[in-house]
Amino acid sequence: MTDQFTLGVFSVILDTQQRILLAHRRDMDFWDLPGGGMSHGELPNEAAIREAKEETGFDVEIDRLLLVYAKPAPWDSDLGFVFLGHVTGGKAETSDESDDVRFFDVDELPENISPRKRYVILAALQNLSETAFVRVNLPHAKEWVTNNQ
Question: What is the CATH number of the domain that holds 94?
Answer without folding.
Answer: 3.90.79.10
